Amino acid sequence: MNKLIRTLALTLALCCLTAASPLALAGEVIDADLTCSITLGNWPADTAPEAEKALFEGYKATMAKQYPNVTLIPDYYSYTLSNYVPMAKGGTAPSIFQPPFTDPQLLISQNLVGDVTDALEAFGVLDKFSPSYVEMLADENGRIYGLPRDGYVLGMHINIELFREAGLMTEDGLPKYPTTLQELAEYGQIIKEKTGKAGLVFPASETYGGWLFTNIAWNFGCVGESALEYQDEDGRWVCNFTSPECVAAMEYMRDLRWKYDILNADATTTDWASAHSLLGTGEAAMNFAADDSVDQPTAYKGLPVEDFALIPFPAGDAGRYALAGGTCYMFAPNITKDQGIALMAYLKILGKLPFLDDDIIAGMRSDYAAKRDRGASVIPAISAWNDDEYNAAKQAIIDEFSNVDMRLYNDFFDSISEGTITLKSEEPVFAQQLYRELTAVIQRMITREGADVLKALKKAEESFQEYLDDEINDI
Amino acid sequence: MSGQNARTRSRARLAEDLKSWMIMLPGLILMTFFIWEPLLESVRMSLYKTRNIELVRFIGLDNFISVVGKDDFLQALANTFSYTFWSLIIGFALPVLLALLIGETVRGKSFFRTAAYLPNMLPGLAVIILWSSFFSGEKSGVLNILLGRLGIPQQSYLTRYEWVIPIIIIISTWKGAGATALIYMAGMAGVNPELYEAAAIDGATVWQRVFHILLPSIRKLAGTLLILQIISVFQIMYEPMVLTKGGPDNASLSLMQLMWQYAFGGSMNYGKASAVAVIVTLILLVMTAIYSYFNRKESDWD
Amino acid sequence: MKQPQRTGVIRDYDMHSASVRVGYAVVILLCILMVILAVFPILWVILAGFKDLKELIASTSIFPQSYDLSRFATTWAQLGIAKNYLNSLISVVGSVICALVFNGLLGYGLGTLKPKGYGIVKRLVMLSLLMPTTISIVPLFMNIQKLGLSNSFVPLWLSYGANAMYVILFVQFFESLPASIIEASRIDGCNPLQIFFHIVLPLSKPICAVVAIFAVNAAWSDFLLPYLVLRGGELQTVMVRLFVFSTDQTVNADAMMRSVVFSMIPPIILFFIFQKQLTENTVSVGIKG
């Protein structure tokens, strides 16, 4: 039934679009006069799966047909704040690159990214941004500097094999997964006892640990009055790590190591990639991770898709939040108007603008086919566009390529669509520094038995407050 | 007559000096471009409030005051001295010993020399990645495998705040000791073997020859290498960055790594980063001054 | 077969003493231990390269389950590493030439010619040895950009012509050369450049070999400046590639191990070539020159 409705919606959407505008077919020249060259960051590296490389070569070919005088220069550049700044300053930044949603405002305020408002206007998609993205990607004058690529919601990755071994299965043959943080600790203990493998892999290095911890802290009640960061009446940014809620959350982290002992051995040096490796190779049963990285443990680290599940972020005593964020496209500060148009045309071909035509549907199909071919789960994506028709049509195509038992994912997606879990974006200011401070506290908790939680949090709070005062309160 | 001679000589001397400077000129230009000018620029930045690499306004020593007042600076300072301490314990005598040992071998000397130097040829990045799997706390960590054979249970190494600095020093010593030994060997080769022969005939034991002929012959070299070692350890950054990311809980954070965090760790505060670098430099200058003071004193004694 | 000459503290004459013979045996044993410690990690990473991801992360055996070279072949092909090898080679050769010529000439000026005012430069060079160079990489990168030298090996080559460490090594060596020889050729009417190429350089093979080895090593291993200068371009070196992989989350730990092996092979091969020269030179030149 559901599928039927979706298919209908797709058909309708297609009809509407076809009726409304004369659509370009693949191979048809759209603008032969547009002459410029653009460098494309995040081009698949030589090590990328063949299917992915072929996909991007296909985009390139389409672009060459539609805009014969636009030169595409592939670039393997992968964004980090530290590598981007000197490039932007030196004029060598790629025309398009993909920063996380934590960075656009910083880049915009420092004039390190290019304005694409006019180009978006030219493509008629300016009004389809969901408002939260407009807020993230625009300056105070409403000029737009970026486009959402995709969003993610934090949940948990599960290695079903280890759950099975530990006897944590329901009668339906599904994993009996933890719905609360307390259960997480208990189930982790059972898994550790029965299998000898880590119940939970926790990447407590650099900023990852603090990043995941903020979500745990929210579920312990670090929101509203007890929020980790807030702006007081005078507009001064204040941090609060010493609320009873935050202390409780940090005590939970300490207990995961010393009371329940369910963490992986080298938590303090584990990064995002090695966390996926440990889960994917069956050395850990659970990993806090998002829906956009489900192909990490599976396609890249070798876990069969049938042994993988995605579950909602476990609830705490005081809340049920899930961190939501994403990646966006941003542009070099020195792009010209023509380059802006060419870049939007490229994104349109990639299917990243809310358009549906044969090319884009073909692109989506080949995208999902490529995913299925390399053993990655084909699952719905959380859309960054406020465009129901577009979203419904997309879902219909996903259903067609589905290679997984959706029962292993439904609870996650249902919790979002039914609102049983509250989506919350990252802490508003200097999140990376906040994460760094909190990671240090977590590291202290899991490396020193009986460490003083309040004292460590107090120290981190002072340090981060000083940072806030330096960076934004004192201007 | 003699005055004119002197003038001719001094003119010749001037021409020669000019030629000498011309010979040095290409090197000087490169030094300026690659080292001196960028360094001066950094010193200047340390006195400014920066926005990216633009200097917003002169703020005197504010960057220094702000940086020094923070806990992580004190921690990094203590860690950096700890790195230096461990590097002197583990890394200073070892190359001398290796040079001595290899120097005594007859057959296979070139083989031993090659083996000693081999680790130093490996790229630093590769070495860190390689050793990270040695010290992995997983049961597949190489040290855990080896110690497991001896019945020692699985250990976690890099999460021990008291172990991380010695571990990092062991890794850099593994990489560097052989190369330093080679330099010592070149120094030791300066001693004519006939000297040992003569001493032996005079009845000097092997140990006496080591302590009275061999070691004194490399004393100046050892002094130089010691100060170079301190300087390089004081600038340690890349190893903890890759291996432990400064953790756990800043237990392996070095001063230069702190500088890196200021510059590239999210806040892009090149002013404060430069301030840390300038502080490191000042400390090094003081240490060098102390060294050369004692060195001179010792020379006077000789 | 002729016994090689003893050059160490222990003389042939000492070997009549039993305790010295035992001591000598200990020396040999310690040297063998050193060889094991130096070589085992390298052997291990090669063995690890034969493992797949699951084996690497979970296996408690040093040895892989199978010696399947196709895993190396796959990674080799994926990396397209042949091209990166060539880039690294070009980068290394140019860097070594620059390191020898520019630092050698500067060292010659400071160590032998000592023109009026050389002391200031020498002190400046000593000072640059102390100053952490990492902080200056951003201003340096900007300078390179301004001159339009990015995406080229030229700045990388030239950066090796400005190495305080090499200059000081040269200076120390040149200072140790007997002044009489240089004085004699000066009286014979040789100009400083002729003296350098005809007298000093032939005497300088040991130090040139040491600096060359350092430069090969450094140029091959370097990735920070090369990453900024060659980034994304066709000129990427092996280490830049490895650095990109170490931050690129799609490269698995097992492929990483094989990349580490690939990054180690050329410097090891090159070292064996340099090593032979170095040994010969140090033995033959000695103090007598």
Describe this structure in words.
The complex is a heterotrimer of chains A (475), B (302) and C (289). By secondary structure, chain A is α/β, with parallel strands linked by helices. Chain A has 18 helices and eleven strands. Chain A folds into two domains: 2-152 and 328-409, Periplasmic binding protein-like II (D-Maltodextrin-Binding Protein, domain 2); 153-320 and 421-473, D-Maltodextrin-Binding Protein, domain 2 (3-Layer(aba) Sandwich), CATH 3.40.190.10. In chain A, 46% of the residues lie in helices and 13% in strands. In chain A, strands 3, 4, 5, 8, 9, 10 and 11 form a seven-stranded mixed β-sheet that branches. In chain B, 75% of the residues lie in helices and 3% in strands. Chain B contains 14 helices and two strands; from the N terminus they run αββααααααααααααα. In chain B, strand 1 and strand 2 form a beta hairpin. The mean pLDDT of chain B is 84. Chain C has two domains: 12-49; 74-285, MetI-like (MetI-like fold). Chain C is built from 14 helices and no strands. The model of chain C is unreliable at 280-289 (pLDDT under 50). Chain C starts with 17 loop residues before the first helix and ends with a helix. Chains in contact: A-B, A-C, B-C.
Provide a brief overview of the structure.
Chain A has 475 residues and is α/β, with parallel strands linked by helices. Helix content of chain A is 46%, strand content 13%. Chain B is mainly α.
**Unreliable stretches of chain B, pLDDT < 50, 5 or more residues?**
none
Which of globular, elongated, flat, extended, rod-shaped describes the shape of chain A?
A: globular
Number of domains of chain A: 2
Major sheet description of chain A: 7 strands, mixed
Following the backbone from N to C, one meets helices and strands of chain B in this order, namely HEEHHHHHHHHHHHHH
Largest interface: B-C, 105 and 107 residues
Question: How confident overall, as mean pLDDT of chain B?
Answer: 84
CATH topology of the largest domain in chain A: D-Maltodextrin-Binding Protein, domain 2
- What structural category characterises the helix and strand content of chain A? alpha/beta
CATH superfamily of the domain at 62-127 and 164-301 in chain B, please? Answer: MetI-like
Please bin the fraction of helical residues of chain B: over 70%
